TrEMBL record, chain A:
The keyword Metal-binding applies. One of its GO terms (cellular component) is cell envelope. This is Nitrous-oxide reductase. Keywords: Copper, Metal-binding. The keyword Metal-binding applies. SUPFAM superfamilies: Cupredoxins, Nitrous oxide reductase, N-terminal domain. It is found in: Cell envelope. GO terms for molecular function: copper ion binding. Gene3D superfamilies: Cupredoxins - blue copper proteins, YVTN repeat-like/Quinoprotein amine dehydrogenase.
UniProtKB/TrEMBL annotation, chain B:
It comes from Flavobacterium limnosediminis JC2902. It comes from the Bacteria. This is Copper chaperone NosL. Keywords: Membrane, Transmembrane, Transmembrane helix. The chain crosses the membrane at residues 12-32, 81-99, 106-126, 168-185.
């Protein structure tokens, strides 16, 4: 009996030892010895790359350094940011205006840097709003959102803001097809097939970056997911992945996963331009906002536009072609040569790679298997370069290193897989922690990738960092891909939820004429105060305009009396400093608004409606100098109808002497 | 060799000296570099013959903490007359080429030395004035502390390290002085006598 027990214990012990030895290595083991050295950027030294990471549901754009993973700045884009006054100052409010009115939040999924000749040029970063469809342009001279354009006829702008190789266009595609804005939207939801339409938008980008909605192409109702422009030989074409070709309007999880293949839609946008010139576009009546930031007046203007040019993909047969792609394709990525188009079916166990040359020949030879809502469907085999067999489960996105390799993320099997574009052979795989979504290689979707680092942006964090209750940071990992094998060198938390990201050599952006401060002489703000002597308080009915200056370490004026209940007070604060890194802040008690953060040479306005009679301190919120704590003042609020006159001063309002 | 007329080489050097004097008018004469933990990139005050340049606005912005008066070109008569003095010295050098007397060269050298001494005294006087004449209501008052920048060289002033050295123009004038000394030595055969 005893013997048997001992034997059993021995068997179990042996068995579990065997099991343990077979268990995959834990995540801690995945880091090799010199990882810290590779990701280490010594104090005072700069990173090699800027990394522009979408903030996802934060609505913002975060800027990290590579390879250190250090966070430098969060640029407010689609969501209000009380810390910076974004969406709170009078000047920035119009930036968040839409045809639905002021929208304080959105979901920024993808970033795309401007390109010249297919190479990242460091001028702008674009970002998409996934909820209330918009595209934003962020100026990399100021790291500030310079422009936002709304997209009509769309529901959820997901396949955006991808660009053509000379930044001719930035595109958008509706994730949720909806009845067009120029048709009746008050229809039964289960009439999707008849009434719901897809629209993809081509937004022209001017020399100074200014955006203009050039045209839209109407398609059958589907869900457009991601996109990428052709480049080199395929310049002139754009590729959009789409799912829900089943046209389901409920329980998409099941009903939009029925078909074996959905599509990648190839769009010949040069052809579309020809049709526009030939007058084939229809002007449709819509409403969308176009918001622009003016660097000289430090103020945004919002304009509501009312017309868009629409081309019909079913009517004009040779603009759009459907390429069948397995299992609800998500990522749609084009290799640096422009020849290979990688579709990633998110439920598939293989990766189809299409050939641009074969697609062209299939179109020329009319190798079609039918049409989808009037759009020709090219035969799968006719456009196919080949399939990557058994790469992993759930491919999502692919980037390139410029050395003939592709790197694809796998959400379900939580890994990045490196494979050879031509031979389609799998070369290496590394785990991610956990369930990777997008990935980024600096310049990885351009003609000229910098194949040194790869960053995986994950969807699940779990045990990666010290726990912070139910809600956790998102996790990202950096891999060194300079050798044959990918090596993890750093794991870092991110803000919001990172989706797509872009990166570029630091020097390209550091040396692009980045601004250090605004010249006060060029400040054309209508309420600018260009010196303390010009500071004043002006009453216009119940509106009171305070022309205020800030300089280390006082406001002028800093004593204001004569404000009455019922007044709307506008503090127009001009920061008179003319040196780098001397911002001043402005806050006043009871403001149901944010604060102001005013950069040197800038004028910013806070609206304040006092609700009670009394004394209201105001102060500088950004520790500006040794006497920052002294940088403060008082505003006296008297009852409505009071006789206290408007008075204001700095340094002269001394106690009365007996 | 004891002829009162100066040699051709000396004339060429005098022409060069003229060029150095005139050229120095177009570049900064002197600089005071300021370094502090908050200013890793450094601040610099550039003293031209006719104006104060460099980061003068930023420095003026900082001066009020210690009660130092702000610097303005128009408050210094020196910037009005200095271009004429330096231009005049250049003209004298040119004139001596034609006078061609070695006594004139000696006279010019003595004048130059007098100019340098006077300029130094004047510069020191202003440094003293700005460093000591402080607003009694200043926010930062350190008993016994003055903020006089060094005449030449390095000095720590609170969180700022001040480094006062000639700029391009100053080096040009120094070179002019050395050339002038060479001419004097050559014309008076000073080394030969020692032998």
């Amino acid at each position: 009996m005893k013997n048997k027990f001992v034997k059993a214990v021995a068997v179990i012990a042996l068995g579990s030892a065997f099991m343990t030895s077979c268990k995959p290595k834990s995540s801690g083991d995945a880091v090799s010895g010199d990882a810290a050295q590779k990701a280490y950027v010594a104090p005072g030294k700069y990173d090699e790359f800027y990394n522009f990471v979408s903030g996802g549901f934060s609505g913002q754009l975060s800027v990290y350094g590579l390879p250190s993973g250090r966070l430098f700045r969060v640029i407010p884009v689609f969501s209000v940011d009380p810390e910076k006054g974004w969406g709170y100052s009078e000047e920035t409010k119009p930036m968040l205006n839409t045809s639905q009115g002021f929208v304080p939040w959105d979901d920024l999924h993808h970033t795309e840097m401007s390109q010249t000749n297919g190479e990242v040029d460091g001028r702008w970063v674009f970002g998409n709003a996934n909820n209330t469809p918009r595209i934003a342009r962020i100026d990399l001279k100021t790291f500030k959102t310079a422009e936002i354009i709304e997209l009509p006829n769309s529901g959820g702008n997901h396949s955006s803001p991808f660009i053509t190789e000379n930044t001719e266009y930035v595109v958008a595609g509706t994730r949720f097809s909806v009845p067009a804005d120029y048709s009746n939207g008050d229809v039964a939801i289960n009439t999707y097939k008849e009434n719901f339409k897809g629209h993809i938008s081509f937004v022209k980008v001017g020399k100074e970056g200014e955006m203009d909605l050039a045209f839209q192409i109407v398609t059958p109702g589907v869900n457009f997911d991601l996109s990428h422009a052709g480049k080199g030989k395929s310049h002139g074409w754009f590729f959009f992945s789409c799912y829900n070709t089943e046209q389901a309007n409920t329980l998409l999880e099941v009903n939009a996963s029925q078909k074996d293949k959905d599509f990648i839609m190839a769009v010949n946008w040069k052809k579309a331009e020809e049709y526009i010139k030939a007058g084939k576009g229809k002007k449709q009546s819509v409403k969308y906002a176009h918001n622009k930031w003016d660097e000289k007046t430090h103020t945004a203007k919002s304009e509501i536009k009312t017309e868009v040019l629409v081309l019909d993909s079913a009517e004009l047969k040779d603009i759009c072609y459907m390429i069948p792609c397995p299992k609800s394709p998500h990522g749609c990525d084009v290799d640096p040569s422009g020849e290979y188009i990688v579709g990633s079916g998110k439920l598939a166990a293989l990766i189809p790679v299409f050939s641009f040359d074969k697609l062209q020949s299939a179109i020329a030879k009319k190798q079609f298997e039918g049409d989808y809502g009037g759009i020709p469907v090219v035969k799968y085999e006719a456009a196919l370069h080949g399939e990557v067999k058994k790469p992993g489960l759930g491919p999502l996105h692919t980037e390139f290193d410029g050395k003939g390799n592709a790197y694809t993320t796998f959400f379900v099997s939580s890994e990045v897989v490196k494979w050879d574009i031509k031979s389609l052979k799998v070369l290496d795989r590394v785990p991610t922690y956990y369930s990777v979504g997008h990935l980024c290689i600096p310049g990885g979707d351009s003609k000229k990738p910098f194949g040194k680092y790869l960053i995986a942006y994950n969807k699940i964090t779990k045990d990666r960092y010290l726990p912070t209750g139910p809600e956790l940071a998102q996790s990202a990992q950096i891999y060194d891909i300079s050798g044959d094998k990918m090596k993890m060198i750093l794991d870092f938390p991110t803000i919001g939820e990172p989706h797509y990201a872009q990166a570029a050599p630091a020097d390209l952006i550091r040396n692009n004429g980045q601004l250090k401060f605004y010249k006060i002489g060029e400040n054309n703000h209508p309420y600018v105060t260009k010196g303390e002597k010009e500071s004043k308080v002006v009453r216009e009915g119940n509106k009171v305009h305070v022309y205020m200056t800030s300089i280390r370490s006082h406001f002028a004026p800093d004593n204001i009396e004569g404000i009455k209940l019922g007044d709307e007070v506008y503090f127009h604060v001009t920061n008179l400093e003319q040196d780098w890194d001397v911002p001043h802040g402005f806050a006043i008690k009871g403001a149901d608004n944010g604060e102001l953060l005013i950069m040197p040479g800038e004028t910013t306005t806070l609206k304040w409606v006092p609700k009670k009679v009394g004394m209201y301190p105001m102060y500088c919120t950004d520790f500006c100098s040794a006497l920052h704590q002294e940088m403060s003042g008082y505003v006296r609020v008297s009852p409505a109808g009071s006789n206290v006159p408007i008075t204001y001063s700095v340094g002269t309002n001394l106690p009365a002497t007996k | 060799m004891t002829s009162a007329k100066i040699s051709l080489l000396s004339k060429v050097l005098l022409l060069l000296i003229t060029a150095l004097f005139i050229g120095s008018l177009f570049v900064p004469m002197w600089q005071i570099e300021l370094n502090a933990p908050q200013y890793p990139e450094g601040l610099v005050l550039k003293l031209h013959a006719n104006k104060i340049g460099g980061d003068v606005d930023i420095i003026n912005g900082l001066n009020h903490y210690i009660g130092m008066a702000t610097l303005h070109t128009e408050n210094f008569i020196e910037f009005k007359i200095l271009p004429y003095i330096i231009g005049g010295l250049g003209a004298i050098s040119l004139l001596i080429i034609f006078i061609a007397k070695r006594k004139a060269v000696l006279f010019f050298f003595i004048t130059y030395i007098a100019f340098v001494v006077l300029a130094g005294v004047d510069f020191y006087r202003w440094n003293y004035e700005y460093g000591h004449n402080l607003d009694p209501n200043a926010a930062i008052k350190v008993p016994g502390m003055a903020y006089q920048p060094p005449l030449l060289g390095y000095k720590q002033l609170l969180n700022f390290g001040a480094y006062s050295i000639p700029d391009t123009g100053g080096w040009m004038l120094t070179a002019a002085g050395l050339l002038l000394l060479t001419v004097v030595i050559k014309e008076y055969d000073l080394f030969k006598k020692k032998k």
